TrEMBL record:
Pfam families: NAD_binding_11, NAD_binding_2. The lineage of its organism: Bacteria, Pseudomonadati, Pseudomonadota, Alphaproteobacteria, Rhodobacterales. Residues 161-279 form the 3-hydroxyisobutyrate dehydrogenase-like NAD-binding domain. Residues 2-158 form the 6-phosphogluconate dehydrogenase NADP-binding domain. The active site is at K167. One of its GO terms (molecular function) is NAD binding. This is NAD-binding protein. It comes from Parasedimentitalea maritima. It comes from the Bacteria. Keywords: NAD, Oxidoreductase.
Amino acid sequence: MNVGFIGLGNVGGKLAGSLLRNGVDLVAHDLNPDLVQGFVARGAKAGDCAAAMMRDCDVVITCLPSPTASDAVLQEMLPEVTEGKVWMEMSTTDEAEVRRLGAAVIARGGAAVECPVSGGCHRADTGNISIFAGCGRPTFERILPLLTLMGRRVLHTGEIGTASILKVMTNYLATANLLTLSEAMVTMKAAGLDMATTYEAIKISSGTSFTHETESQLILSGARDVNFTMDLVLKDIGLFQAIADRNDVPLELSPEIIRIMKDGQQRYGARAQSDRIIERLEEVTGHKVLADGFPTELIDDEPEETGYEVVINREPVQ
């Protein structure tokens, strides 16, 4: 397939890099020409504009920072959508919006897939990230070979819209984990515990999580740069709250998580790294949570492997 990729930022650039590294004929486009030239130097072609990419490519992938950006790019591409064309949306977006845009693509004879990723930028860089894919089964099987080049574990979630719902749920859970970890580590520091020992205690216990095994290391090293900013966190947890509101679920923790993250954004800036949220508690207590021996950046040391579909176990209980 001739593949176009629009959006070469923190996540998109790494996903596009996996395609290029694995021999895909790639056309790259971004508002930042330096990012495009970096891909051209590695063997990609430069895309002129979104419309031309949809006209000339079999598949166009978008990985953009907001639903507004995705809408603008899709509207530009839509006149060039014809039978057999595929639009793959890898941004984290609103399920109602991706369903609306997907329906417009399908109405013109194309296929639409939402395929957000989860697992952090360091895993996106090595093709070991997880991917959720929402679309019809025939479309999923058609684009699965591309997905397994970008991700290790690929889950078909159902029709378009389902992947976006699950994606914002996972980001909500990750944010909740980050806040409870912040409270736990500052409390252990105040109680006189060694921070490296605290990290290991959490890691080997029922209190561990993916967030702990990744972001806690950046907190302890003092780097606090997980390549995910507070404005993006607030977008995602706001989308999760909206899903709950639409379905009349009276959430109790979610509004408090939103309040805390908004306070962090006001203190440190909209583009501050999300793991700086621990500094709210550090400042009020006077306890700095740091330890020697932790990395300043996350590096995925798992060997790259071709991905696979995660098969859901639906066997009845005996």
